[in-house]
Design brief:
The chain is about 70% helix and about 5% strand. The chain contains six helices and two strands. By secondary structure, the chain is mostly helical. The protein has a two-stranded antiparallel sheet. The protein has helices spanning about 5-10, 25-60, 75-120, 125-130, 135-145, 150-155, and strands at about 10-15, 20. A hairpin with a 2-residue loop joins strand 1 (about 10-15) and strand 2.
């Protein structure tokens, strides 16, 4: 049986300035192909852990202790599995943080509106605004505030 190096040397010939492979021995072609596949698999196996390490080091600056954790993984299948799980978690977490931020801003706008309309707000009323947990509640209170003749009338209608 021929070695890949012998095979390469014997199968190459010059024709019109271009290398041509002489494919006259099918068993040689199969051996050459199998050697090529083994070589590629070996290189890919060596690249996997290095690429996994590179990906994790690229993601590590995104870590936020207690919120976003990047676990240690050693191969690409683990990286893919980790990212599949984590991206869904991160997306939901970011959406929740966005909703909370939006709700906090809406509470602030409502407080400013009420202070302009009725003057300084009693601390109890401020605490009540801080307990509002949905935009629909803020919207409802804003509408009622526009219709109320005084803060006392508005506060009387709160449950």
């Amino acid at each position: 049986m021929f070695s890949p190096d012998m095979l390469r040397g014997e199968m190459m010939s010059e024709k019109d300035g271009e290398d041509q492979v002489l494919l006259s021995h099918p068993e040689i072609d199969e051996d050459l192909f199998q050697d090529f596949v083994r070589e590629q698999e070996s290189e890919r196996a060596a690249l996997g852990p290095a690429f996994a390490h590179f990906l994790l080091e690229s993601l590590r600056p995104l870590q936020i202790p207690g919120k976003i954790e990047i676990p240690e993984v050693t191969d690409l299948e683990e990286v893919q599995s980790m990212l599949t799980e984590r991206v869904a978690e991160w997306t939901e977490q970011w959406k929740q943080e966005g909703r909370e931020d939006c709700l906090g801003q809406a509470r602030g706008v409502l407080s400013q509106y009420l202070e302009r309309r009725f003057g300084p707000l009693p601390e109890e009323f401020r605490r009540r605004i801080e307990t509002i947990s949905s935009i629909s509640e803020i919207t409802e209170l804003s509408i009622r505030a526009g219709e109320a003749s005084s803060l006392a009338v508005l506060a009387a209608g709160l449950t």
